[in-house]
Amino acid sequence: MAGLLQRIHRANRPPFHSLTPREARIAYRMGAEILDLPRAPLARVEDLQAAGLPARLYAPSVERLPTLLYLHGGGFTIGDLETHDSLCRQLSLRSGMAVLALDYRLAPEHRFPAAVDDAWAALAWLHQQSDRLGLDGSRLAVGGDSAGGTLAASTAFFARDRGLPLALQLLITPGTASRPDTASHRFFANGFLLDAASIAWFFDHYIDREQRCDWRFAPLEADDHSGLAPACVVLAECDPLVDEGIAYADTLRAAGVDVQLELFRGVTHDFIKMGRQIPEALTALNACAEALKNHLTP
Q: Active-site residue among 92, 130, 146, 198?
């Protein structure tokens, strides 16, 4: 990991916070899968519309499969179906489940709570349209990485409160707190891939300061975590977000939620998308797949 960080530093790419959102999206898309595994072939890969938004369905077979709604990372500001295509293929391939990736609306054009509303709408749509898609709407999960993990955590509340079936929330290096003020935010503020300046840039584009205690942005702030779907929380040790990820896992456990916590030592934020270089990425993918199998198969 240290050697990889040195190579990334030598590449001297401009940090996201020095770019416009449009420039950052292009830069992220160009580099998003360089370290990721090759795109695995699957029996079913279909572009479609989910709740009026672009989406992509992945499945290893044409059987009636359980489905994971996947919400990509990118600080609510960058990322799309292409940046996370390899990751979604791997989750589908290794778990044997279908994966529906959502291209939710991005900030600053669409500020909070647009992305939250899109994620909720997509889960409801998936539940309603599963038969038409040839999927099993009674066995659903929601997941995401980074900002997508935040959205997945928020969507679990929606499922609980609306009575939608949700077997698992898969939270990969999620943001869960209202402020970047934990020890890990200070210790890993610079030089560990996700810098403090970029976190501030993402937040400022997405949400006003006075809104940041809203639980839809900071799930730790919710009043009641009981009754939520079981959680698989995948964290990286050298990540500014690791402390709030652990705090969220603890909060869920204290509320009686079944939690599987996977903490990967010596790796940074976004490591799960570095399967060409980081063996822990493969272990993490397998852990996610096993969690999906455990909670979505009869």
A: 146
Give tens-digit pLDDT for 76-130.
999 999 999 999 999 999 999 999 999 999 999 999 999 999 999 999 999 999 9
Catalytic annotation present for 146: yes
Separation CA 11–CA 258 (nearest Å): 42
The residues that bridge with 169 in the sheet, in sequence order, are 142, 231
Active site residue 239: yes
47 is catalytic: no
Residue type, 36: D
Strands (E), 43-90: 44-50, 53-59, 65-71
What would the pLDDT profile of 235-280 be if each residue is shown by its tens digit? 999 999 999 999 999 999 999 999 999 999 999 999 999 999 999 9
SS3 assignment for 173-202: CCCCCCCCCCHHHHHCCCCCCCCHHHHHHH
Residue type, 185: H
pLDDT at 172: 99
Catalytic option among 239, 243, 270, 295: 239
Catalytic residue among 178, 269, 270, 295: 269
- CA-to-CA distance for 146 and 153, rounded, in angstroms? 11
The DSSP 8-state label assigned to residue 18 in this structure reads G
The answer, as to whether pTM is greater than 0.85, is: yes
